[in-house]
Amino acid sequence: MAVFTPLDDSQVAEFLRGFDAGTLVSLEGVPAGTENSTFFVTTDRRQLVLTLFEQGEHEELPFFVELLDYLDEHRLPVPGPLHDRDGIALHSLAGKPALLFPKLPGRHPKDPNLAQCRELGDTLGRMHRVSRHFPGHRPNPRDLHWLLAMYHKVLGYLSPQDQALMEDEVEIYQDVFGDAPDLPQGALHGDLFRDNTLFVGDRLGGLIDFYNGCTGDLLFDLAIVINDWATGPDGRLVADRHDAILTAYQAQRPLTDAERDAWPMMLRLTALRYWLSRLLVVYVDPPAHDLTPHDPDQFRTILLARLKHGALPLPEGEA
User: Fold this and answer.
1) Which of 73, 102, 131 is the last residue before a domain boundary?
2) Are residues 93 and 51 part of one domain?
3) Are residues 275 and 297 in the same domain?
């Protein structure tokens, strides 16, 4: 969240007139963020979040609206976008696509405890269970096909050892996932790091920032979560967090045999996905705005730990 396109009170007050959300009381730009302009909007009736989309594929925004609407209808804790009096959610404001959301309660957990891990696992399991029936479609923009197309762009910036590591990993992923194993498909969050969740104490207030949302292997989403939520500073998996998330997840959606077989390699693939995407931002495609990129070495460390120590045993699912 950030502000790259400033707005004044009169613009937002006029924008709100199309919605049944009350009249403007205050407008506050949110300074932190990477891609879009974000504002906290307080009306005489409620608190809202207004997002202006600064970059990315704007034609894909209807997919995100449909996905959030679908998950909201299924009582998942997501910010279902507000629709105006004509039933339309996606609008234009200051020349940019704009969406208005309810402001969800809570804060990002920097060091999640086991109760928060169980909450996250339970909610992601429920989300994946219902998302298998979501009718929309957007191919995963960061899957194996993307890795194959993009990894060569960063090789010249790596040491010979890291070049070999990346090339070997991509070749192995082709062998494992290239024949399209029968993994359950559905709608994904695509980037469910801790800073895309909000907690009130141990209660999950919401999942936010679905702009990497897509459809694909549900296991891909789960591996991203474990690599962030259940990993220590040395890159190794933290057993109690790992088990808390996966036990709660599988109580909602047990993993299939094919998913269990693919799990260790999916942890590696998603670690390399973030190592590569961060390298691309640093060396190839810097952000449009003056922002500090994430450190690529974090996910190099995670990948090396997965190679050295492997995956932890998966808890048994509950039927």
Assistant:
1) 102
2) yes
3) yes
The model's pLDDT over 14-55, given as tens digits with 9 standing for 90+, comes to 999 999 999 999 999 988 656 789 999 999 999 999 999 987
Is the same domain home to 17 and 94? yes
- Output the pTM of the full model: 0.94
Using left for φ > 0, alpha for ψ between -120 and 50, and beta otherwise, residue 22 falls in left
Cα distances from 2 to residues 20, 40, 67, 126, 303, in angstroms, run 26, 11, 23, 30, 30
Q: Which domain holds residue 280?
A: 114-309
pLDDT tens by residue, 181-228 = 689 999 999 999 999 999 999 999 999 999 899 999 999 999 999 999
108 lies in some domain? no
In the chain, the number of structural domains is 2
